[in-house]
Amino acid sequence: MPGYATRLLTVRLGGHDYRIRALSDLQQFADPTGQAHRAGISSSLWSLFGQVWPSGRVLAEAMSSFDVAGKRILELGCGLGLSSLVLAKRGADVVASDHHPLAESFLAYNAGLNELPAVTYRDLPWTTPDATLGSFDLIIGSDILYERDHAAQIAAMMLRHANPDAELLVTDPGRGNSAPFTRAMAEQGYEVTERRSRFNEKDIEPFRGRLLSYRRGTPMASAVPALQ
């Protein structure tokens, strides 16, 4: 027995239904070998990877129509991998990454549930450089600025893994850490465009959630699909 309970969800993205195995709730926890503890993942944070979050759905919906032709794509903090699954369905060259010990197995299971090809996965702690990962044309992440230190960590990741003309898309539910990240990206020559978005049915305008897009030179406003 794995020590945790799961459930099957149907998530509609880009006009297609995806079957997703997720953890049953936020109370699930199992770390019999201490792998999560060694990775710095506490019991209170352990279950977060295994949920379908509004920010993840917004990013995956954006990926259903975003121009990805010819681009090498990296998803940071993929969790259950919604965006990577959408990209795999479109035939995109995507690498999903996370640091949770179960993220890879859940991603593989969900790809199989949807009869998709296996998605390349990398264990990628944000504070540890990985010289073997290479560089990317598009880097994406949903709610990856949830702690204060993450702004500097992801900015450093961009220095290591972003091509000179790379694009970065981040969904941010409004935790208050995007401003220092935008400043750090500006120091690298990136301009930001934001699009306010409804993250759940209870949201009312002006929406707190945003899709943030970063690019050197011309902002990406015309490239980001409108979100309802």
Helices and strands, with pairings:
Blueprint: E1 6-13, E2 16-23, H1 35-38, H2 54-63, E3 72-76, H3 82-89, E4 93-98, H4 103-113, E5 120-123, E6 136-142, H5 150-161, E7 162-172, H6 178-187, E8 190-196, E9 210-216
Parallel strand pairs: 3-4, 3-6, 4-5, 6-7
Antiparallel strand pairs: 1-2, 7-9, 8-9
What value does the Rg take, in angstroms?
17 Å
Total number of beta strands: 9
Distance between the termini: 41 Å
List low-confidence stretches: 219-228
Number of helices: 6
Mean pLDDT reading? 91
- Let me know the largest β-sheet: 7 strands, mixed
Briefly note the structural class of the backbone. Answer: alpha/beta
Residues in helix, %:
10-25%
Taken in chain order, the helices and strands follow as EEHHEHEHEEHEHEE
Percent of residues in beta strands: 25-35%
- Judging from the principal axes of the Cα atoms, what is the shape? globular
Strand order of the largest sheet: 5-4-3-6-7-9-8
